[in-house]
Amino acid sequence: MQFVEEIVVDEFLPTVRSLLAGDLRDRGFTQSEVAEVLGISQSAVSKYAHGDVTVNERIAADERVQDLVDELGTGLAAGEISPVQALIELEILIREFESGGDLLAQLHEEAVPELADHGSSFRVHDPESDLRTSERVLSSLRRGLGMLETTSGFTGLIPAVGSNLVACIPDAEDVDDVAGVPGRIFDVKGRTTVPADPEFGVSEHVARVVLATRRHGGAATAAINITYEPELVDELIERGHVAAEFDESGDVASSVGAAIEDEPDATVLYQTGGMGIEPLIYVLGPDAESVAETIRSLV
């Protein structure tokens, strides 16, 4: 398994750095000056100068790479372009190269031929492809879960029914478009336990809350449920969140929808429980990492 980001790190960046280092040296920069401008060590510059770094000839021969190296070399030498601006320009070119059919996409599919075996209309590097969108959601969710697993004190916020951190694709319509943790997150002997990798379609309860929020104008794409304490709601409000109460004894979708219509900017939803219903707080956010960061601020 190889990700396109590995090709960027292993082939694109060394090639472009080598070309830029050579360009700046040709303009009269010393080895230490090149190192400072490119943010690399002098030993790395020496390796570039002596050809000790492998250059991808297809990347080096691309006219867009050559034009950008010349533009950046001219700007850096004249002090008209900062290293940060140069980095942004390279980032833009990388994204262009990753798009369907372009250079990095081609190199990636050659390295992983299976990527081309999903049908003629499928392109993993199409930014709008369903697979790429889903993988971004799952990647964000994994990072959020990793944050929670290493958050001391998070287990104290896990309700008896367990927590679940979920995230959905941008055009989510039902629970199959929402990813979560199979079996939920539990406190096992004081340790946050995530029993399996996140998947789509495995969370109904928290997923329905996110979907109901979005159907009634909310912008959140991720959420988590934690134990209810009035003090927690107060603390979240103090931290700038807008809170809204809903009644979970009825239809969740309708109750959440009504709460969002009353408080469109709500990022905290809560219900105080009832017969056979555990009181819970739902923290909403634009992505799984943001939600996890909010939870970390509570412990």
TrEMBL record:
Molecular function in Gene Ontology: DNA binding
CDD domains linked: HTH_XRE
SUPFAM superfamilies tied to this protein: AraD/HMP-PK domain-like, lambda repressor-like DNA-binding domains
Domain of life: Archaea
Residue span(s) of domain HTH cro/C1-type: 27-48
PANTHER family noted in UniProt: HTH CRO_C1-TYPE DOMAIN-CONTAINING PROTEIN, TRANSCRIPTIONAL REGULATOR PROTEIN-LIKE PROTEIN
Protein name: Helix-turn-helix domain-containing protein
Organism (species): Natrinema longum
